[in-house]
Amino acid sequence: MAKIAFIGLGNMGGPMAANLAKAQHHVIAFDLSDAAVAAAVEKGAHRAASAAEAVKGAEIVVTMLPAGKHVREVYEKDVLPNVAKGTLLIDCSTIDVDSARHVAALAGKAGMEMVDAPVSGGVGGATAGTLTFMVGGGDGAFGKAKQILEKMGKNIVHAGASGNGQAAKICNNMILGVSMVAVSEAFMLAKRLGLDAQKMFDVVSTSSGSCWSLINYCPVPGPVPASPANRDYQAGFTAAMMLKDLMLAQQAASAAGASTPLGAEAAQLFSLFVNSGNSAKDFSGIIKMLDGK
Ligand code: NAD
User: Is the pTM of this model over 0.90?
Assistant: First the structure.
């Protein structure tokens, strides 16, 4: 049983912390939201009054925060000044590669091992403990982190050095954003050509156009009963999150000199969708905008 500080108990962090407590770890929980801390305590965690208090005496610190600026701030103000040397630091947030490498370098200077370990699998995967973790960091840190991450996920992949977990995450989500637009366009074209959506699904799902966006998140109601299209595009994975990840991919592409024209187009389309009042909708709802609705 390890003493684990968990900071950021939102949609993802809440169920992840609950799984650590369920695995008999001593979880000390902090979030700016009292309600989020109370929910974690109900699931077996222990309350901390501040992030600084949570990390004092912890063997492992897990953070699950919205964006790079939150991770930098929490690391610089609360985590690094208060943890003991040798503490293992695991950041599971999806953030920009530069911030991930920056905080890892600060942690290294202060005598701590750190990994970036963003996730795929959404709230369902966080709750079921079946997330995929993409981990950036040294071999030793990865080996130790894996034992903890296995309590929250099913696939734990060592993606390489610091920041590479984030690199894998934004590349994956760039494919996801582009493929959702492609699948949506194809369904709209099929409809205008008089092709039934179910027939279209039956053909494409067993043909070369098949992909995750079609099979799991089919953007038209009917063919995939569990997809958000069947409940008026209630998220799921919000359009705002999709846009955030596409923008991270675009920033990284521009810094690295990579040409990503389809990623750029997907970012523009999701930006339009989000800015038309759809930020909380599931990202597959973009089909309505593409259909002119
Ligand atoms: P969320 O907004 O539900 O939760 C974030 C939590 O962080 C909130 O409870 C907030 O109060 C807390 N917080 C913010 N600043 C803080 C601070 N300084 N100290 C303590 N707590 C603070 O977001 P989420 O959906 O849980 O996502 C978290 C991360 O996981 C994001 O980086 C997101 O991109 C990533 N992610 C989300 C999903 C998803 O489906 N929701 C999937 C994969 C990855």
Answer: yes
